[in-house]
Write a structure and sequence with these properties.
Elements lengths: L15 H27 L2 H36 L5 H31 L17 H31 L6
């Protein structure tokens, strides 16, 4: 089904949405060209090779590792949340995505804290760098996220069940 806002109103006549899309596309191409010019003008050729290698490895890791893992996780999650409605499944998936992103951001901090702050006398560790217990904070975050997601899933389930019941009066 085509939405009337996304198609031209008459043959050969372009609507407002088409012009907005064209302007946003042109703006995106201009920003991309500016970034590419800045990269080529400010980065030495030796480092450009390193950037190209990094981009190639990132592409391989994304397509060869992350996509298959998320596909498997999504299939397993679909089986795990089989009895839930689509909104509830979306809440679970969103919570897991947020948790994964926060874990991805916290992992380097946890690792750096383990490597850069050895304990013991004479370690010479700088006590002002990486203060706080990042691992404990991550565990607390996951617990709060799980409780919040479970609460919202339960509330959506109760609301959905109540809204399906129709009260009739004689």
């Amino acid at each position: 089904m085509r939405l009337p806002l996304l198609t031209p109103s008459a043959p050969g006549k372009r609507g407002t949405v088409w012009w907005v899309r064209a302007a946003l596309g042109a703006l995106g191409l201009a920003v991309l060209g500016y970034a590419l010019f800045g990269l080529l003008a400010n980065v030495p050729p030796v480092q450009l090779v390193g950037v190209a290698v990094w981009l190639a490895v990132a592409l391989l890791v994304h397509d060869g590792l992350l996509v298959p893992l998320t596909t498997l996780a999504g299939g397993g999650l679909s089986r795990l949340t089989y009895g839930l409605g689509p909104v509830q499944q979306g809440i679970v998936r969103g919570a897991l995505l947020v948790g994964a992103l926060v874990t991805l951001a916290a992992a380097p901090l946890i690792r750096a804290q383990q490597v850069l702050q050895p304990t013991g006398p004479g370690s010479g560790a700088n006590s002002t760098v990486l203060q706080g217990d990042y691992l404990l904070a991550l565990v607390v975050f996951w617990v709060v996220l799980a409780v919040a997601a479970a609460t919202v899933v339960a509330a959506v389930g109760l609301y959905g069940r109540r809204s399906k019941v129709r009260k009739t009066r004689p």
